[in-house]
Amino acid sequence: MFELNKNFNLLDEQLAESGLEMAFDPFTAISAVASIAGGIFGATEADKQNRAAEKAYEEQKEAAEEAADLQNEYNRKVFEADKQNYYNTRKYELETAQRQWKYNQSIQDFQYLQTVKQYGQSVENTTNQLTYNALAAQQAYEQEQAALNEIYIEDAFNRQGMLVDRITNEGRAAMGQAGVSRNKALQSTLADVGRNAAIMSASLTSSVKQTNRNLRDIGMRRYNADMQARASMMLRPEKLPDLLTPTQAPERIWVEPMKVLPQAIGAPRQQSVFAPLISGLETAAPAIGKAFTPKPELKPSDSQPGF
Fold it and tell me: Quick one: pLDDT at residue 306?
């Protein structure tokens, strides 16, 4: 107020020197000062709000960058964990497949050995059956031969007995009646001997033929038994090829996670700090003009009537 009064005194002095006199309106001056003060306050508030907005903007940017860093760090850890889990699973699956392959291969080898043993037993059984068939056939042959030999022996004895009977009958006939009766007796004896010999020869021939038929039947039965034995024998086993060793599938192609950028934060809209000042000055200017209005100069006629 002191400076204001001083200014106004200087103004009065200048006006006095110029021959003008100013009329001062304090209320209008106060209004002008208030307008100017309001402009200054508005500029200060605008600057304060701008600073607060800029601070909040920087804090939001920093928070967005921190959140992006945290997200990128998390994505990197997840990516590394996925890779490690993949390689652990890949290794485990290969080891499991190799163990299963070894187990299956051992089972296949065991089954082959068991089949070889069964085949060996089958061969042994077949050999034994063929041996039995041969022995049985040989025994049947020997029995048939023995039976035929007995027939030969019996035939020989019968022929020898028939020869003895012939000689006896001939001696009797010779010692009997002479002449025609004796001749008839000899002829009758010879006829009996011939008839008996023919019967014996026919019987022997029939026996030999039956024996041959029996021998052929024995051979056929043996052949049939051998065929059945060989048919029941197992086929020679063949070892299966080894199982394919397990292989791994192509390795997975990894793609690094995309980097997360900070969230876009819009810059704050700055308020003009000069607008309130200019507005205050524009509002105060008319008031200042009204507060300092020059007084009209009084003429002698106006101040001293009648002179």
Answer: 44
Instruction: Name the region of 19 (left: φ>0; alpha: ψ -120 to 50; beta: rest).
Output: left
* Residue appearing with tokens 């939001």: 60
Helix (H) or strand (E) segment spanning residue 278: helix 274-291
Give which of 27, 91, 17 is closest to 249, Cα–Cα: 91
Q: State the Cα–Cα distance between residues 94 and 263, nearest whole angstrom.
A: 44
94: three-class secondary structure by DSSP: helix
How far is 55 from 63, CA to CA, in rounded Å?
Answer: 12
Q: What tens digit of pLDDT does each residue of 59-116 get?
A: 888 888 889 899 999 999 999 999 999 999 999 999 999 999 999 999 999 999 999 9
State the DSSP string of 28-80. HHHHHHHHHHHHHHHHHHHHHHHHHHHHHHHHHHHHHHHHHHHHHHHHHHHHH
Q: 233 near 123, Cβ under 8 Å?
A: yes
Q: What is the pLDDT of residue 208?
A: 86
d(CA 104, CA 246): 12
